[in-house]
User: What shape does this take?
Amino acid sequence: MDKTHGLNVQRISQQVEAFFKNKKSFRIFHGATNSTRVLTFKKDEIIDISGLNHVLSIDSKKHTAVVEPNVSMDTLVKATLRHNLIPPVVMEFPGITVGGAVQGNGGESSSFKWGTFNQTLNWYEIITADGEIRTASDKENSDLFYATPGSAGTLGILTAAEITLIPAKKYVELKYIPVHSFEDAKNIIESIHKNESDFVDGIMFSKSSGVIIVGQLTDKATAKIRRFSRAHDQWYYLHVENTYQANPQGWTETVPLTDYLFRYDRGAFWVGRFAFEMFNIPYTRFMRWVLNPILHTRKLYQALQESGASQEHVVQDLVLSSESFVQFAQFIDTEFNTYPLWLCPMLPDTKALFQLNNLKTESIINVGVWGSRIPVYDDFIKANKVIEKKVLAIGGKKWSYAHSYFSEKEFWSMYDKKLYDKLRIKYHAESLATIYDKITVTKRHPIQKRKAVLKTLFGIAKLKIEK
Ligand SMILES: Cc1cc2nc3c(=O)[nH]c(=O)nc-3n(C[C@H](O)[C@H](O)[C@H](O)COP(=O)(O)OP(=O)(O)OC[C@H]3O[C@@H](n4cnc5c(N)ncnc54)[C@H](O)[C@@H]3O)c2cc1C
Assistant: This one.
């Protein structure tokens, strides 16, 4: 492997070993985050891996890429496209990293075909908590290989991974299929065959109107070309909503590949509209054009971390068997009336122990519930807990990027704690925080919206490191 990479990994492993010898816990710092929890770091408790951000090699014959964990999705796609290849699962936010997508969660509209991001990887290089550098794959340290996805860095630090690649095409041809109920949406999703399509997701605008969007990689533009990455382009979900109103019978369009992959970047799906509400800015196309530089997900996340505004908005992604999807969507409609809802089917993965799509079912539908403001903190927590209770009751799971208020007992009822504890002993990770500790919100942070805007505008907002 690359010499500089080897030296950097050696250096990090020595730091990890020092923490281990002192029986001290550390936290992984990688410079940015797509988590909505407010993160603060203490200088003497971090291992900084933000420099591990290189694509190490691409093998265009074997269709593989070896990358460092802090490589973001846009960097990865740019590098693989030079070989006319792409990763089969590219998360929609360009700033999501390889390491974060494996150790947190990572999935998108091709997950109905390929599963979550980790299901497309062949092996990882990982530094376990004793400082040892190990390789994990289906053949070597396979327990670590299957326990790492979703474990939030609590079994070790991912320092490299080999990703499978597939041939790229110039465009994605999108077919929009109208649906008129949750049942309808589920039936259409289940009717799409993974050998015939490349992407499937859906947006429900109300309980009786929505579209399922089916994509196909293609080199030929057969319908009108639409783009979503330029300042003057319409935000993707607004384009879909407006076009649906004009074409209630459905339509087809062609989108250049990278515009498709990162179509939800501007406005972070529709979460970016909350910033307009917060500052009483007219939610017009003109204002979205003016403010475009700060409405991409990287900037929105900086503002979110600085402002603490995530403590007033219920933003959750829930993973459900498709049998319980309709019940859950109806529950959200009755209790919250939150729209739009994002639907994303996924392949289950019963091998990855702590990954959210480890459900015993044939098919999964992920629901993005990204709701409006609940200003009273107790009500905000209550709303999150109501969703958690419902998801537990119907056998679902929830994404770890979000606020989590489960009791420890509730949390571990979803995962095999005995096995987790056994692996923590085997890989010397007992002094590190557990997954539960890492994702549970125990503290409210001060809300500082105006300061956040100024810092974000001038580009100096970043994850806080305290002395
Ligand atoms: C509205 C909304 C919609 C979203 N939609 C999607 C979506 O469609 N698809 C999707 O995939 N994601 C989506 N996300 C975000 C997503 O869930 C995760 O946050 C993301 O996959 C990981 O991002 P990250 O790279 O910033 O990692 P982080 O969130 O910073 O990290 C995740 C965890 O992994 C740990 N970690 C990071 N790197 C390493 C490493 N090298 N070794 C060990 N541990 C490490 C971190 O400490 C942390 O515990 C959405 C989020 C929001 C708010």
About this structure: The mean pLDDT is 92. The radius of gyration is 21 Å.
